[in-house]
Amino acid sequence: MxxxxxxxxxxxxxxxxxxxxxxxGAPETTTADAASVSHxxxxxPVSDNSNLAKQYAFRAAMRELWEDHVVWTRQVIxxxxxxxxxxxxxxxxxxxxxxxxxxxxxPFYGDAAGNQLTTLLREHIVIAGTLLTTAKxxxxxxxxxxxxxxxxxxxxxxxxLAAANPNWPLAEMQAAMVGHLDTTLAEAVARLxxxxxxxxxxxxxxxxxxxxxxxxxxxxxxxxxPSAFAKAK
Length: 233
Prior knowledge:
- By secondary structure, the protein is mainly α.
- The chain has one domain.
- 76% of the residues lie in helices and 0% in strands.
- It is built from 8 helices and no strands.
- The chain has helices at 5-17, 31-35, 51-82, 87-109, 111-137, 140-164, 170-193, 196-224.
């Protein structure tokens, strides 16, 4: 059930916002309290059909998707470096997350854009796998080439996002993607070299950065499509 949680929460958020066919209003009790709990457990007293309740629900759903991204990336990093038999299963789950993220923007930007984002994100994952395997094998030339390609792909993702939403300036999206790649690479290097304290610190940095990035994306969509989050009449 966990594997579908992020997409499920987002579907609920979109239904509340009126983006999904047959959307219905939220229950009169408890929904807003659950939706308004931040990552750190702070609850905002908002009504179920308020603008804030819808925004909180949407932000929580976006965070769930991007947290899945870094959690399953970490699982793949650990599996590849250790050479354990769960590698394929973890990688399959991680790739499905890229589809989930692409699907999440379809109600706003259309199927073609959602599919394009999925393609870019899947490339991001595939290249990361090459980075890991070449680093593990000590193939410096192949690692360097893959790293260059990885950052090129990150720039492609930043440009795609900036073109989709005026609230996502290109420089900000580029900085966000470089930050994501830098922190993820630091995590992988620490794990590969057996720097366990560094590994913990690096993953904390990955996690905090992706939450900020998820909020930036949510805020941009909310600002671009305010009617989707308007108070129900």
